[in-house]
Amino acid sequence: MKLIIENGGTKLDWVLLGSEPIYACEGINVFGSNNDISNQIKQIFPQDILRLETLCIDFYTTGFNSIINSKLTRIFQNNFQDCQINIFSDMLAASRALFKFDVGITCILGTGSNCAYFDGFKNNIITPSLGYLMGDYGSGYDLGRKLLIEYFNNNLDQKIHKSIEEKTQKSQEDLLASIYASRHPKNYIASFAKLVKYYENEPLIQDIIQSSFLVFMEKNPYQYSQYQKYHFGFVGSIAFYFQTHISNILSNHNIKAVFLEKPIDSLMSYYLS
Q: What pLDDT, on the 0 to 100 scale, is given for residue 272?
């Protein structure tokens, strides 16, 4: 049997190929300790799956690199009774879900952001993924950060300002302190992207949205040679819920795009095609 797992920056989806339903839960922090990851695996997967014989696992994850590959391989083999484990990047999950075996430019816009050119078999890096400290343009983190900067500088309309106060139940001073003290500031800041979406028709918020996505395009997919020739594909909640804004930007270059909120459904089609 084949177990497909898609581990994003915030959520994890998994399914046994050819069966239903698709399960969703909190994502695994691949940078956490071995014990923490093992405990999450035991909480996520039922015992009958952990004990399956000759199980093949394809695990797609954010944060993929050679060190994470070796680390997760050992952890999964220690927690599943009899498994063959393959670790892939979340970018490959997105590309396979969007294009299957065709070519295109794949973009992830969720809590973080990334992009690559997919040649039908593997991804080719366009620009390096620098993470939220030096990149993540167009992501939920980027939108939330820009909104909060305007909030702390008292530039927001009163109703938006009040919405942030109601969401946080903190003063500006306490909110800023809590962000810097947080163990996971990226995810918390990204949560404010929901307010950006809610107030998307406000002039200042429109400017935030436009600038965020335009910088993402210019620093990432538009860096690829003759990018206008290719179909674009977007995966992630930010891309899905802000697709009208993204499509308007792409239309200036006569580029068409497809949008998926989560890759897991189309990923199953890839395996069955």
A: 85
Please check whether residue 36 is in contact with residue 6, taking contact to mean a CB–CB distance below 8 angstroms: no
Q: What integer pLDDT is reported at residue 133 of this predicted model?
A: 67
* Residue 190 C-beta-side C-alpha neighbours within 13 Å: 21
Confidence of residue 259 (pLDDT cuts 50, 70, 90): very high
Query: Residue 181: CA atoms inside 13 Å, Cβ hemisphere, count?
Result: 6
The reported pTM is: 0.87
In this model, does residue 148 exceed pLDDT 90?
A: yes
Could you tell me if residue 133 is left (phi over 0), alpha (psi between -120 and 50 degrees) or otherwise beta? Answer: alpha
CA distances from 105 to 26, 145, 152, 220 (A): 28, 26, 36, 10
**The dihedral sign for the CA sequence 93, 98, 103, 109:** negative
Residue 189 vs residues 117, 142, 183, 184, 215: alpha-carbon distances, Å: 29, 8, 12, 9, 19
What domains lie within the chain, and their CATH numbers? 2-92 (3.30.420.40), 140-208 (no CATH)
Please tell me the number of Cα atoms within 13 Å of 200 on its side-chain side: 15
Asked if pLDDT for residue 204 goes beyond 70, the answer is yes
106 band by pLDDT with thresholds 50, 70 and 90: very high
Q: DSSP characters for 240-255?
A: HHTHHHHHHHHHTTT-
**pLDDT given for residue 222 in this prediction:** 96
